Amino acid sequence: MRHLISTDQLDREQAIELLDQASAISRLNEESTRKFPTLQGKTVVTLFFESSTRTRISFELAAKRLSADVINFSAESSALPRERT
Question: What is the value of pTM for the model shown?
Fold first, then answer.
């Protein structure tokens, strides 16, 4: 299952598996390393068209906790064509 819209979609086994995964992730906050190897060797690239430091940092932190390399782009400082006002 790629997207979870409602818990009505889950059978008993899927619900238990989801709760087990959530519990494992929650334990990350108690460990000193706080990392999963899920995205190890992968690169996550973010591009934000509006300035939002809190959102950018949240995405970057999530990717790093999953062991990904992160590259951040900002539309404000890129050579993207600008709309004339």
Answer: 0.52
